[in-house]
Amino acid sequence: MALLQIAEPGMSPEPHKHRLAVGIDLGTTNSLVATVRNGIAVCLPDESGRTMLPSAVRYRSDGSLEVGRAALEAQAVDPRNTIVSVKRFMGRGLKDVAHIEAMPYDFEDSPGMVRLRTVQGVKSPVEVSAEILRRLRERAEASLGGPLVGAVITVPAYFDDAQRQATKDAARLAGIDVLRLLNEPTAAAVAYGLDNAAEGVYAVYDLGGGTFDLSILKLSRGVFEVLSTNGDAALGGDDFDHRLFCWILDKARISPPSLEDARRLQMKAREAKELLTACEQAPVHVRLASGEEVDLVVSRDEFAEMTQPLVQKTLGPVRKALRDAGLAPDEVKGVVMVGGATRMPHIQRAVARYFGQEPLTNLDPDKVVALGAAMQANVLAGNRAAEDDWLLLDVIPLSLGLETMGGLVEKVIPRNSTLPSARAQEFTTFKDGQTAMAFHVVQGERELVADCRSLARFELRGIPPMVAGAARIRVSFQVDADGLLSVSAREMSSGVEASVLVKPSYGLSDEEIAGMLRSGVEHAGEDMRARALREQQVEAERVIEATEHALDKDGGLLAVHERDAILTAIVNLRALLAGDDHRAIKASIDALARATDDFAARRMDNSIRTALAGHKVDELEL
Amino acid sequence: MSIDLTQDFFALFGLPRRFKLDETALEQAWHGLQAQVHPDRHAHLSDLEKRLSMQWATRVNEGFRTLRKPLARAQYLLELAGVDTALETNTAMSPAFLMEQMEWREAVEEAGAAAEISELEDLHRRLLAHAREVRAQLAQQLDDDHDFEGAADTVRRLMFIDKLQQEIDEALIALEN
Predict the structure, then answer these.
(1) For A455, phi and psi rounded to 5 degrees?
(2) Average per-residue pLDDT in chain A?
(3) Cα of B13 to nearest chain A Cα, Å
(4) Nearest of A592, A96, A295 to residue A584 by alpha carbon
């Protein structure tokens, strides 16, 4: 296909080729997919015109699946196999999940992450999430007319490493190339900030279905700098439903309800909560399996009173985030409200009271995260337009550290460090002749290891025997732009090294993912080879375009023979594009990458020099 | 390519190697550099470019973190000047300073134990004013007198103050909870 393109000399072919990229808000209650079309971010609807996909997956006994609304509707009749709010289980062990006793699932506590026994076997929350993501990917590809280059997936800012990794694994399982994991409040700030040309310090109050985030951002001349973030990864609209559900059980003297009745009552509780946003009171009318009728009325005041402790609970993170940013409430210029739960009037009142100003509600709290993610995906995919010269500087939400003697935590990277971030710490042996050292990587703010989240354990072996205290072991932490950690340890005198990608103890192993990918593909009846070919073709076109663009811009950094080598590699790759051998294309992409390694390094040096020349700062201004 | 480690953070940010620093210029230089090297600017490029970009962006963030806070900046300047501040071992502070520190600390502990939020906040304010004076002295020593040995001593005093401020913050947090 690419071989047939004819370009006049001096004109680069397809100068503004648009790469298909989307932003996905993988929510506790609902999920959305959005893209930038003709410069405007839009949420993509399904065939019936709905943009919100309920985050519900039903595993049916005949081996088929229901995702979204159909699954949601089946939850009262098939609660055990219909998984809702799966986000609460991502990267979580059984003991970490609140209200687990009220959930109708058959849990299996496997190491690291809880799993669910369904009629189709044991499912990891990663697999369940992948079904939701796959559905959104298919929706986007059908709507945009081609395979996606990649997606930005949003996560709660307060998600820890294990939860982020689980989200990334789910995307991989769904056949999505993750361009970036983006924090939900940051995504919302981008959408709000760009739409309103906002400048100054803003707070984003994001109460989703199952998570709460509060981020403080400074917006200045196209730079979105997160100053601090705080939150509660297990507090959301679901908890408000749960309070109302308990209230109904109490008032109607039901104890304990059957699984089906519990689901019915939970659904009713949610409906009543939503009704109370607009009305002073809401009826709760349910017919139980026994034929018994529940007939109650709940008023807005009653609901506000029973959920007041939850509203108060959100103010703790607000205070902490402001303190970390070194700001007082009245120094915040505006408060952006995100998440469907922020529609509740008593939440808006509490926020208004705390900040001394009415919160900003001139955007759709359900869609703003997906829209912001789409804007970022568009830029990351390389569709940057002249007016897209904005930059995100995000932070790590929770401190990362190592266990030291006595079960204490030594912090290595403090919370609210700007990403990407790296730090190293030196340790030494405490016994004569010690040849190995064990490391335990943890995340959290507490001083005791037992109160923090365990992320990984690894050992450095082969340390040459020395007297105690003589070895110098340098442990390096690197957190990338997705907020994911990798750790390495090195004995400085001998150079003995060990490293881990922080994964095994809370995420899934690569083998597990490979196995799931295989079964998933078989399940969907998809032609794996055709997909692999399509993916490699898209990747090849992307790499060729990026390289040609680089040659156009910085070709002067190359000697003639270097330039020729790169051009030859491009020609070779182009020649393979029309064929159907995805492996050959992959090999040729790798060859082109090798041919441009040096060029890439020189380009990076050059851009630093240009930045240092000082005139770039002004060009950055919007 | 490896990162040019011979280049110090002041050079990286295009700023004069001084303790007194134009914070706006530092922030603008930080934004300007990140606009070039941040991984978001290289997400659509090759794996190598992504890796380089992460290394550079990490380095730039480290530089910003080092230069922004007066204490870290002073320590860094001393490091560049080849003065070992020997922060862990050399605690030979003047008796007068140590006495003063003890008095501060006792005041913090007493206010904390008595749950005196306003007293703690007052201590915090007084300590901030004190830190400003110490920083002014540091600027004199580092920028004007080039008295690095003296500056190392002042840095240690600033560290005590920093630590004390953290203790006040923690006491305040404990009281709020």
Answers:
(1) -100, -40
(2) 86
(3) 7
(4) A592
Instruction: Record the tokens describing residue A272, joined without a space.
Output: 């009543």
The arithmetic mean of pLDDT across residues B145-153, rounded, is 90
- Cα dist from A371 to A42, A51, A483, whole Å: 6, 12, 21
Q: How many residues does chain A have?
A: 622
Which tokens is A27 given?
């929510």
In the block, tokens 């016994």 appear at A431
Residues in CB range of A583: below 8 A, 6 or more apart: none
Contacts of A331 (CB under 8 A, 6+ apart): A201
Q: Which residue has the higher pLDDT, B156 or A111?
A: B156
State how far residue A320 is from chain B, nearest Cα, in angstroms.
9
More confident site: A436 or A42? A42
3-state helix, strand and coil shares in percent for chain B, rounded to the nearest 5:
75, 0, 25
Q: Is A25 a catalytic residue?
A: yes
What's CA A606's distance to the chain center, in Å? 33
Instruction: Indicate whether this complex's ipTM tops 0.85.
Output: yes
**CA dihedral sign of residues A299, A304, A305, A306:** positive
pLDDT classification of A618: cutoffs 50, 70, 90: very low
Chains A and B form CB pairs within 8 A to the count of 115
For residue A240, give Cα distances in angstroms to A72, A272, A311. Answer: 19, 11, 9
What is the C-alpha to C-alpha distance for residues A269 and A512, in angstroms, rounded to an integer? 38
SS3 B2: coil
pLDDT of residue A612: 64
Looking at residue A101, the DSSP 8-state letter turns out to be: G
Sequence-ordered list of residues with C-beta below 8 angstroms from that of A291, at least 6 positions apart, any chain: none
Alpha-carbon gap, residue A106 to A59, rounded angstroms: 13
- Characterize B61-72 residue by residue with b for buried, 16 or more Cβ atoms within 10 angstroms of its Cβ, and e for exposed: bbbbbbbeebbe
SS3 at position B161: helix
Residue type for B160, please?
A: F
Q: Note the pLDDT of residue A527.
A: 58
Distances (CA, A) of B13 to A197, A605, A608: 28, 14, 10
Q: How many CA atoms within 13 Å lie on the side-chain side of A268?
A: 25
- Asked if A376 and B40 come within 8 Å (Cβ–Cβ), the reply is yes
For an interface test with B, the pick among A217, A322, A391 (most B C-beta atoms closer than 10 Å) comes out as A391
Query: How do strand A21-26 and strand A150-155 relate by DSSP bridges?
Result: parallel
Which residue has 């020349």 as its token pair?
Answer: A613
Going along A480-534, which residue ranges are E strands?
485-491, 497-501
> Any catalytic annotation for residue A131?
no
d(CA A387, CA A619): 11
**Residue found by looking up tokens 């062990």 in the block:** A93
pTM: 0.84
Mutate to test the interface with B, among A608, A610, A622 (most CBs of B within 10 A): A608
Cβ atoms of residues A458 and A437 within 8 Å? no
Checking if the pLDDT of B23 tops 80, the result is yes
**Cα–Cα distance measured from residue A151 to residue A35, given in angstroms and rounded to the nearest whole number:** 9
- Bridge partner residues of A458 (DSSP): A439
Rg (C-alpha) for chain A, rounded Å, is: 26
